[in-house]
Write a structure and sequence with these properties.
The complex is a heterodimer of chains A (212) and B (302). Chain A contains five helices and eight strands; from the N terminus they run ββαββαβββαβαα. In chain A, strand 1 and strand 2 form a beta hairpin. The N and C termini of chain A lie far apart (70 Å). A four-stranded antiparallel β-sheet of chain A has the order 5-6-4-8, with helices on one face. Chain A has a two-stranded antiparallel ribbon with strand order 1-2. Chain A is flat and about 110 Å long. Chain A is an alpha+beta fold and 212 residues long. Chain B is an alpha+beta fold. In chain B, strands 1, 2, 3, 4, 5, 6, 7 and 8 form an eight-stranded mixed β-sheet that branches. In chain B, strand 2 and strand 3 form a beta hairpin. The longest helix of chain B is centred in the middle third of the chain and has 22 residues. The two termini of chain B are 62 Å apart. The chains are: A alpha+beta (212), B alpha+beta (302). Chains A and B meet through helix 3 of A and helix 1 of B.
């Protein structure tokens, strides 16, 4: 009788004391629930798990096929970001949607998100004076589509389609991810920052006291 | 079944080096006969086959195809194309629908407030002459709109139809701004001169993409800036040489796409005598039918 079968129910890892008669001896010990008195049944939920997935690795060994490919046949680009920026929100969003669908239809792994907008306040002055003539508040919106595992001959096709269908007023950047850009997406937590600063002050004071 | 599983052993680790040893046995380098190596280089063979180097320095034997890379240099459109009639009608309809379902903007609210204030002021003037409060002059919505229109009139956008279009100067890059343009070059291939994409054979020790870059620089000048799209060719064309000129069976042309960035094309007089920038529709006026067929596979004007 095999004692080390992996079953499907969620109580796999819970251990139960068991007493089992093996031949004339009574064997007792701690074992996974699945293995106690009745084989194929979990002690806790009484589920009869008909399918035994596999024998555990130390007994049967691990099977690894010989023809495993660690690298793809056609070289692939690292994860790339298609950054689209523009002042006109409607056009930008419509184009970003199109690009996402295009990348999907080309069979690429895609992910898309919006980056917080950066606003610019512009004041124009009347000639030769500091009297404000006009005030404009412009927002540069941004959408990003990230593509992964792009086979090298497929990227030029995507880029050509993007360029052909690009609307006026949208700037497109194709590049790898940068840490500053990733940081910019998150809203800084003021409370956390203040607490960390307080902690730093306390620790610095402690160190000074130690030195003295 | 349990018995079978009980009896199975973990897979034995293969001793290192067996794979490489096995492959070495079939290594063609070891197993070649002495006379198989470099047979083309022996004098007697060369004389017999009358091998000679072609003018461009690429060595080939009869029964062999010359590998040629060509550059499809595209100037992408600079302005968006005009809408067709149907597109314009649809756009107008969508604009109308959007207007009807939209809420009033700040400017429109301001205009409505202005009208209300005007009406109030007229009423006050009628009812009490001289007693009514004279409100400060308010900049009305219409005044603002007039000021903005005057400011907008000072800006003149560039012309959609340029000088080059009017003169129909096919050598200019400023030609059809709303269509993609492709560079065609007049090259002498064999006896005749053809209008083709700049092409040239691959030399020893370079990849097809490097050959394409070199060909573009040699034929069109060092100042032409191009962005090549990847190392993979986008198209293929094959043609046979006339059997009398024994330089080989023919040539296999691999096309590489590149986006034009800057620089004037100065054709190098040796290989290319003339050049022109041409839209996809105009290609059929200059190129031969089999060449057009191969090109048409990757040139799509959407």
């Amino acid at each position: 009788m095999s004692l080390l079968l992996n079953f499907v129910c969620c109580h796999l890892e819970q251990e139960v004391e068991y007493r089992l008669k093996v031949g004339r001896r009574v064997v007792s010990g701690w074992v996974h629930t699945a293995q106690a008195a009745r084989p194929n049944t979990c002690e806790i939920c009484c589920k009869t798990n008909v399918r035994a997935l596999s024998r555990s690795a130390p007994v049967a060994g691990i099977f690894e096929p010989d023809d495993l490919k660690l690298e793809p046949d056609i070289p692939e680009y690292p994860p790339l970001k298609l950054q689209m920026r523009g002042y006109d929100f409607v056009i930008l969003e419509s184009y970003a949607k199109y690009v996402h669908g295009l990348a999907d239809s080309l069979g690429l792994d895609t992910d898309a998100w919006a980056v917080p907008a950066r606003s610019k306040d512009i004041h124009t002055f009347k000639p030769n004076s500091t009297v404000v003539d006009n005030k404009y508040s412009l927002k540069m919106f941004e959408r990003v589509v990230q593509i992964e595992s792009v086979p090298s001959p497929r990227l030029p096709i995507l880029l050509e389609m993007m360029r052909t269908h690009a609307p006026e007023g949208v700037t497109i950047n194709v590049k790898e991810s940068e840490p500053e850009e990733e940081e910019f997406r998150y809203i800084p937590d003021k409370e956390m920052r203040d607490l960390r600063q307080q902690m730093k002050v306390i620790e610095d004071a402690r160190e000074e006291r130690r030195k003295k | 079944m349990w018995k079978y599983l009980d009896n199975c052993q973990p897979p034995k680790a293969k001793p290192e080096g067996t794979e490489s040893e096995r492959l070495k046995q079939y290594d063609s380098g070891q197993r070649k006969r002495s006379f198989q190596a470099d047979w083309t280089k022996s004098d007697s063979v060369r004389n017999y086959l009358q091998l000679r180097q072609s003018s461009s320095g690429a060595l080939c034997t009869p029964g062999q195809w010359q590998l040629v890379s060509a550059v499809c240099l595209q100037r992408q459109p600079i302005i968006t194309a005009e809408k067709t009639e149907l597109e314009q009608q649809y756009a107008d309809m969508m604009a109308q629908m959007e207007l009807e379902t939209s809420l009033l903007s700040d400017q429109e609210l301001r205009a409505i407030e202005d009208k209300a204030i005007e009406a109030k002021r007229k009423q006050q003037e009628e009812n009490e002459t001289g007693e009514g409060e004279v409100e400060g002059a308010r900049v009305t919505a219409l005044d603002l709109e007039d000021a903005w229109e005057a400011e907008a009139k000072q800006f003149t956008p560039a012309a959609r139809i340029t000088e080059a279009d009017e003169k129909n100067d096919q050598r200019s890059v400023e030609r059809r701004l709303d269509k993609p343009l492709v560079l065609l070059v007049k090259q002498t291939l064999g006896d005749k001169s053809h209008w083709v994409f700049p092409q040239g054979p691959r030399q020893e020790g370079e990849s097809m993409r490097q050959a394409a870059e070199r060909v573009l620089q040699n034929l069109c000048g060092q100042q032409v800036g191009a962005q090549f799209l990847g190392n993979a060719p986008c198209g293929f064309h094959q043609y046979r040489f006339p059997p009398k000129a024994s330089i080989g069976t023919g040539a296999k042309v691999f096309f590489y796409k590149a986006w034009y960035k800057e620089g004037d094309v100065i054709p190098d007089k040796e290989n290319s005598t003339d050049y022109m920038w041409v839209t996809f529709d105009e290609l059929s006026d200059h190129c031969s039918r089999p060449y057009l067929k191969s090109i048409g596979n990757f040139l799509v004007d959407l």
